[in-house]
Amino acid sequence: MSSPNKQFPSEWALRRLIAFVAALGVGVATYITIADSGGGAPACLAGGSGCQTVADSSYSHLAGINVAALGIVGYVLLLASAFLASDAARFGGFVVALGGFGFSVYLTYIEVFKIEAICQWCVASAVLMTILFLLNATRLIGYAGAERELAADAG
Amino acid sequence: MPAEKNDRRTKLLQLAAGAVFLAIVAVAVLIVVNSTGNGGDTSLEGKAEVNRLLKGIPQGMALGDQGLVLGDLKAPVELVEYGDLQCPVCKGYSEDVLPPIIENEVRKGQARIVFLNFTIIGEQSVAAGAAALAAGKQGRGWNYVELFYRNQGEENSGYVTDEFLKAIAEGAGVKNIAEWERERKQLTSEVGSSTADAQSLGFEGTPSFVVRGPNTGLELLGTPDSTAALEEAIEKAG
Q1: Cβ neighbours of residue B12 under 8 Å, at least 6 residues apart?
Q2: N vs C: which end of chain B shows fewer Cβ within 10 Å?
Q3: Best residue in A58, A62, A91 to probe B by mutation, most B CBs within 10 Å?
Q4: How far is CA B141 from CA A61, A62, B56, in A?
């Protein structure tokens, strides 16, 4: 099926991609939250200690809540937005992804310049959130104002 | 109704552009606040060193929240340190005398160390001691004590402010700062209790040590002058 706007992939394809990447994000954020909940840290690949250093930092929590737990909430909202073909879902998904992307930029700055350690799992989450931001931005720009049926049929 | 659709689309994209602008401003503000704030974690000395020293060693509380335990609770020997966080001699022990014992006897499960407050220098020592105990309630008590010593100022000079205590807590990795703030105000009586215990044992200065093990029972060590003397006492006790 062709998309209503040839410059963009079909909304159906975008939604499937968003759902897939958001599901990966839920997995990553859940792993970080569980690993941290017992006072531990996610296991860094190749035996690095960056994950422990980042998990031990006070920046890993916001008002006592693990930032990865906030990540779970964000990814679940993005996953939910992918199941709906409406302007509310398009705009809501974009806003959540924008917030997640902005927060990821901030956390990456904190890792590099304040904690001076890199956690591979946090980088993975930041990359996933960046992809989700781009996908949701593409979805909004390409399909804002499109009829529900047309968008659902596309692809 | 293409015109209505176009209007809706234009409105949504305008809102999205506004959200992007707000997000850029919010991230910029967060980064600027963090880079120009009162230093947070990175203005402190010795944070990486303390993290390396204590990494992987279990921590807990003992004696009704009076003591900060470092090491395995099943270790046969217990070395108790009565210290004052403002005491420069204690700082020297923290930096030079105790690290080899932490690396060897504690890490190998032969001994655990319990830090107890013995506040002889002033009121600021009580505030500092209570702050360390509150960090201990979140499993970061020894990180707090070690980081405090590495950033210690001149006795009773007024450097032990709420901001200083909080910066140490953040640097020590205390995760719930609000809870730590609440706890530290409630733990001053525990600081007083351990100080009274030290006095009842006849100690007059800090740091003072006690060792307890299956071979010797409770033995007062006073202030041994070297790592070797403490290691010998641990070996004899176990």
Answers
A1: A87, A90, A91, A140, A144, A145
A2: N
A3: A58
A4: 18, 20, 14
Q: What tens-digit pLDDT sequence spans chain B (238 residues)?
A: 567 778 888 899 999 999 999 999 999 888 887 766 544 445 688 887 888 888 889 999 998 889 999 999 999 999 999 999 999 999 999 999 999 999 999 999 999 999 999 999 999 999 999 999 999 999 999 999 999 999 999 999 999 999 999 999 988 888 888 899 999 999 999 999 999 999 999 999 999 999 999 998 889 999 988 999 999 999 999 8
Q: Are B148 and B199 in contact (CB under 8 A)?
A: no
- Would the pTM of this model clear 0.80, i.e. be above it? no
Name the residue in chain B with its Cα closest to that of A146: B5
Which residues in chain B have Cβ-Cβ distances shorter than 8 Å to A90? 12
Q: How far is A84 from chain B (nearest CA, A)?
A: 17
Q: Which residue from A135, A61, A93 is spatially nearest to B19, judged by alpha carbons?
A: A93
Virtual CA dihedral for B227, B232, B237, B238, nearest 10 degrees?
Answer: 90
| Residue from A7, A8, A9, A12 nearest A154 by CA | A12
Instruction: Give the phi and the psi of residue A39 in degrees, each rounded to 5.
Output: 85, 5
Which residue out of B25, B33, B175, B180 would a mutagenesis test of the A interface target, given it has the greatest number of A Cβ atoms within 10 Å? B175
Task: For residue B175, give the nearest of A53, A64, A113 by CB distance.
Answer: A64
For B21, the token pair is: 């602008």
A110 touches chain B (CB under 8 A): yes
Q: What is the largest CA-CA distance in chain B?
A: 92
Torsion of CA B72, A60, A129, B7, to 10 degrees: 150
To 10 degrees, the CA torsion angle through A101, A102, A106, A112?
A: 40
